[in-house]
Specification:
It contains 12 helices and no strands. Helix content is about 60%, strand content about 0%. By secondary structure, the protein is an all-alpha fold.
Length: about 300
């Protein structure tokens, strides 16, 4: 009976993830230059707090619910600026690499061109992805679950000092390749990525490195066989569980639940579920593998932009 209940719960969650992904894919992708007066300052604050020069897809999707995004971000912003948040993100970095790393022998990455720019973008996404997993988990837990008194007590024991705010030196962004305007070669790669992952949309990361089609093709051909494997799924679940454990340490003791309009409640919940349990952890696994192929296994244990210490 217990196993049956667990299986039914898993099936329900899988359906929620699928619905959440479809919802996200069907919503306008609100870029910073398209944000209105309410969301524009939130986008700017997100970049300053997370220390990256871009606004990730989870926020661009939630911007379709401006009251929710504004209230949720303001409620949790002090936690996301704390040193313990940076440390929890670092711990996720240390867990993110799935080994053995695919061989990259025979590929001269340096011949691809603009490697400094590509590395800056790759490292920026690697830096921010664990933070996005923590943010999405915290949004879900504070909006739809209850934070216990024990968790609040435990959080008091962690360092609540602020990290330096502002865009980290050396981070970078690139213009995303539009799937509708991409070359046939890149469109085929995008289709392969979506089909393999079961994503109805192409991530900003893959749209970014598509500026270097040779790099995208070489990197994707090597990690594609790992996506969805037993080891991949097991590590993904470990990342999800660690993020859930990590937010219990965040030094925000009293959080007023962000208001959610009744008609929007189910949509927001499904979107957060999809990003928390599938989209973000899968991208973290992919980017960690690609970084290891590019810069070596030792480079993946932490981010060069971290200010945890």
């Amino acid at each position: 009976m217990k196993n049956q209940i667990l299986m039914e719960g898993q099936m329900n969650q899988e359906e929620e993830i699928k619905r959440g992904m479809e919802l996200a894919a069907g919503k306008p992708d609100i870029m910073p230059d398209q944000a209105g007066e309410q969301i524009s300052p939130v986008f700017e604050d997100i970049q300053q707090t997370l220390r990256v020069p871009l606004v990730n897809l989870i926020f661009r999707t939630l911007a379709n619910y401006p009251d929710y995004l504004e209230n949720a971000w303001k409620a949790l912003r002090p936690a996301f600026r704390s040193r313990v948040f940076e440390k929890e993100a670092d711990y996720l970095h240390s867990m993110a690499l799935l080994e053995p790393v695919p061989a990259s022998s025979g590929v001269n990455w340096e011949n691809i061109g603009e490697m400094d720019r590509l590395r800056a973008f790759n490292d920026t996404i690697f830096y921010v992805l664990p933070k996005l997993l923590l943010v999405t988990t915290a949004f879900y837990e504070t909006s739809f679950n209850s934070r216990s008194a024990e968790e609040g007590k435990a959080a008091k024991e962690h360092d609540s000092s602020e990290i330096p705010l502002g865009i980290a030196e050396g981070t970078g962004k690139v213009k995303m390749v539009d799937p509708e305007k991409a070359s046939e070669r890149v469109r085929d790669l995008f289709s392969s990525i979506k089909d393999t992952h079961g994503h109805p949309l192409v991530s900003s990361y893959y749209r970014g490195i598509a500026n270097w089609p040779d790099f995208l093709e070489e990197a994707w051909s090597r990690i594609k066989p790992l996506v969805g494997s037993a080891a991949y799924e097991e590590r993904k679940q470990e990342l999800i569980e660690q993020a859930l454990a990590g937010i219990k340490n965040l030094p925000v003791l009293e959080i007023e639940k962000p208001g959610v309009e009744p008609g929007q409640r189910e949509e927001i919940k499904l979107i957060l579920t999809a990003f928390q349990h599938k989209f973000i952890p899968e991208m973290l696994l992919d980017v960690a593998l690609i970084k290891a192929m590019l810069d070596g296994v030792q480079a993946v244990g932490s981010s060069r932009f971290s200010v945890a210490e």
